[in-house]
Specification:
The protein has a domain at about 230-315. The chain is built from 37 helices and no strands. It is mainly α. It holds the Pfam family PPR_2.
Length: about 625
């Protein structure tokens, strides 16, 4: 009878329990007592395939671990081929080897063996590691595909699961082009991709909103006579909903039924979400009605999208009542929707009441819950309350995530507190969370607001130096800062940089430049800039016109100011409080009291409530007008 020492017994028991899912990390941890006491040295001549095979079959993994740097690809491959009928041992064997010491053909052979397991998860994990590591070393996915085909031939297997798994792996890594390339390679080599493999590609294209590519791929599936299943149809209905083609989405539902594919709850929920996102609540209700008629019971996934839209319309109670009648109790997603809806409307009292109700019902607030509430508090200028909430999160031992940091940094930046914003940036870095474009845009904004343009430019250059491509919002923030400080040369140089990067400016870009030019009294240049906007296909908005009106009014050129106002009206823009106040300041400057009084009456008739600035300008214009009248009488 074999005698077991304590370490051997422990190793034997662990090997039985571990099975195919044994990890390298677990292996190293489990055998540390043994390897610390026995460290035999082996020469390459002592290593044979038989000894490796015997070690694997008797679970003597410590022996294999000690040899990992000395094993040749040939030796590893020979051992693997001897483990064809025991893929679980093949997985354990591979997990004890240093992946860096294995060449691609050996790795692919190992994956081919492991793919024989009932669960495809281990093979997919190994594939993931190979694709990530090899593509970093300029090995293409096509090369990996070819090696997998060779490994498949070597094992003399008819299954195409290896190649299907490679496509799935590419989809998991969001390698769109590579996944599609593998699909067409399979067809070229005479392999029939599974419908599930096609669904992986379609699902990825849908998630990335690459709807045109999704339709091209779907058409090829049809041409290649690859049958669609319920999941295929659900994905394509979702694609149609994303494109806003709701009638066609319903038509596809009818088509799938004609082909004998019965819809499921997901099919109907996808349609309900499509209608809800477009505000077509009655259409969503019609889908629910049809859903019920087919024997399907609506669930929370059915109602949550409707609840989201109704919250934005202030009609949450209506849909909550309907959900209650259906016997549906709100879940954490429902509560987060309600909290977001109330926060966006500034109704923080109700938002926090929903948070408390959520906790009472046994749902722990998520990061999304806290982030929504913190954002709402900053929007309502309740900084102290936001800080109390952050303290509560920290006391619970919850580490802040990137979104929370960005909300806080942006909140402090919007309120001009650069010191706290940069302190949070430093804390974010210390916690190992990489700042995003949004982080840097907020910091550049606050520096510009504090008129620290040198620091803003330096931060911008640092962002570029890190290899991060600035987006339009970041450029606009920096440009606005330079326009506000009168450095128009730098502002226009940023516009040129954007052109070089083929980044299209927007109305915000030009409004910043126009405001800067008007601030320097260059009204005609600002007017020309509006013309350039139109030539670029950018439609001026009410801010563009108000900027010009305000500029001309400050100059006292009320004639030009009113001409711009008339142009604004002719294009369908309604005057705002800012428009009227700017015009009144011009009339005040020119002592045109009667016109100021008429404009005030017009303003009220348009339903615009005057503010203190309005009345000050009118009073000043009337006062000057009366003084001039008295002088002329005398």
């Amino acid at each position: 009878m074999r005698q077991f020492t304590f370490p051997c017994l422990l190793r034997h028991r662990i090997s039985i329990l571990s099975g195919a899912g044994y990890s390298r990390t677990a292996s190293r941890l489990s055998f540390s007592p043994l390897t610390s006491t026995t460290k035999p040295e082996f020469s390459e001549s002592q290593i044979s395939s038989d000894s490796l095979l015997n070690s694997a079959r008797t679970s003597q993994w410590h022996f294999i671990e000690q040899l990992t740097g000395k094993l040749t690809p040939s030796l590893v491959s020979t051992t693997l081929l001897s483990l064809v009928k025991t893929p679980d041992l093949a997985l354990n064997f591979v997990n004890r080897l240093d992946p860096r010491s294995l060449e691609l053909p050996t790795q692919c052979l190992a994956i081919a063996l492991v793919s024989k397991l009932s669960s495809h998860k281990p093979a997919l994990q190994l594939l993931n590691e190979v694709v990530v590591s090899k593509t970093k070393r300029s090995v293409s996915v096509r090369d990996i595909f070819n090696e997998l085909v060779l490994a498949r031939d070597q094992l003399e297997t008819k299954s195409t699961i290896l190649l299907d798994l490679l496509v799935r792996c590419c989809c998991q890594l969001k390698m769109v082009d590579e996944a599609i390339d593998c699909f067409y390679l399979m067809k070229e080599r005479g392999f029939d991709p599974k419908t599930e493999t096609c669904n992986c590609i379609l699902s990825l294209l849908s998630r990335l909103n690459l709807t045109e590519k999704a339709w091209v791929f779907y058409a090829d599936m049809y041409r290649m006579e690859i049958k669609s299943n319920i999941y295929t149809y659900n994905i394509m209905i979702n694609v149609l909903c994303k494109e806003g083609k709701l009638k066609k989405a319903k038509a596809m539902l009818a088509m799938m039924e004609c082909f004998g594919v019965k819809p499921n709850v997901v099919t109907y929920n996808t349609l309900v979400q499509g209608y809800s996102l477009r505000g077509r609540i009655e259409g969503a209700r019609m889908v629910i009605k049809e859903m019920k008629s087919k024997g399907f019971k609506p669930d929370l996934q059915t109602y949550n999208p409707i609840l989201s839209w109704m919250c934005s319309e202030g009609r949450a109670s209506e849909i909550l009542r309907e959900m209650k009648e259906m016997g549906l109790v709100p879940d954490s997603v429902s509560y987060n929707i309600l909290i977001r809806g109330c926060s966006n409307k500034g109704d923080l009292e109700t938002a926090f009441a929903y948070r408390d109700e959520m906790m009472k019902e046994g749902f722990a607030p998520t990061f999304y819950t806290y982030n929504t509430l913190i954002h709402g508090l900053f929007m309502e200028n309740k900084i102290e309350a936001a800080e109390i909430l952050i303290k509560e999160i920290r006391e619970k031992g919850i580490a802040l995530d990137a979104v929370t940091y960005n909300i806080l940094i942006n909140g402090y930046c919007q309120h001009g507190d650069a010191k706290k914003a940069f302190a949070l940036h430093d804390e974010m870095m210390t916690d190992g969370i990489e700042p995003t474009q949004f982080t840097y845009t907020s910091l550049i904004y606050v520096l510009c607001r504090r008129r620290k343009m040198r620091e803003a430019d330096e931060l911008f250059e640092n962002v570029v130096g890190k290899g991060m491509k600035p987006d339009l919002v970041m450029y606009n923030a920096l440009m606005d800062g330079h326009c506000s400080t009168g450095n128009m040369d730098r502002a226009f140089s940023l516009l040129k940089e954007m052109d070089k990067m083929t980044m299209d400016p927007d109305d915000v870009t030009y409004n910043c430049l126009m405001r800067g030019l008007c601030g320097e009294g260059k009204f005609e240049e600002a007017r020309d800039l509006m013309g350039e906007m139109k030539r670029r296909g950018i439609r001026p908005d009410h801010i563009s016109y108000n900027t010009l009106i305000s500029g001309y009014s400050k100059k006292g050129d009320t004639k030009q100011a009113f001409m711009v106002r008339d142009e604004m009206l002719s294009l369908g823009f309604n005057p705002t409080l800012l428009t009227y106040n700017a015009l009144l300041k011009g009339l005040s400057k020119n002592q045109e009291g009667r016109l100021a009084e008429e404009l005030l009456m017009e303003m009220k008739s348009e339903g615009i409530t005057p503010n203190d600035s309005t009345y000050c300008s009118v009073v000043e214009a009337m006062s000057n007008f009366e003084q001039d009248a008295e002088k002329s009488d005398n």
